[in-house]
Specification:
This protein is mainly alpha-helical. It contains 7 helices and 3 strands. The chain has one domain (about 10-175). A 3-stranded mixed beta sheet has the order 1-3-2.
């Protein structure tokens, strides 16, 4: 990756660590059924909005059969987040808590669909990076653009913080 000052988040590290522990090193290894089986979750396809079901020990992610496979894949990672990171029934929880879970699932989707330990091998300065990621990771170009924008924003923030720290150090030494 061209941005050496990019700093991963705790969630990003957690996702990459999980993938590495189970030997997921390349995009073509990210098979939805295989990932779901690691968590003992069934996957089904029905003409309904995607959702996660838990009934006792039975767990299932239902994916909308009417949307394209790229969208199904993104919805799988979103619902997987609810399955492995969240508790409670969203219809019965305060709105703020539901929004927090949805925001977490959105971030999780970015990291699980495009894990850092895999995307860092790509040249993000390549003008075709969005198409490459979309093809290799089998997700929409919109999700790839969002991930790339996130990486660039974090890099810019890191550079600005570094410059501010250097400026303060310079001022302390030469004033």
């Amino acid at each position: 990756m061209i941005y050496p000052q990019y700093t991963t988040t705790v969630l990003e590290d957690w996702v990459s660590s999980w993938y590495k522990r189970y030997n997921y090193w390349n995009p073509n290894e990210l098979k939805l059924r295989k990932i779901a089986m690691r968590y003992e979750i069934f996957i089904s396809y029905k003409p309904l909005d995607s959702h996660y079901i838990r009934f006792g020990r039975y767990r299932e992610i239902v994916l909308n059969s009417k949307v394209d496979p790229l969208q199904q894949r993104e919805e799988f990672f979103h619902e997987l987040c609810h399955a492995i990171r969240h508790v409670g029934k969203q219809s019965m929880m305060p709105e703020a808590f539901r929004e927090l879970q949805e925001r977490d699932a959105k971030h999780f989707t970015l990291y699980a669909a495009l894990p850092y330990h895999m995307i860092r091998r790509y040249d993000i300065e390549d003008s075709n990076i969005i198409e490459e990621w979309s093809h290799d990771f089998k997700v929409s170009e919109e999700l790839c653009e969002e991930r790339l924008d996130q990486i660039k924003r974090r890099y810019i923030t890191a550079v600005n913080e570094n410059c501010t720290a250097h400026k303060k150090a310079y001022e302390l030494c030469y004033k």
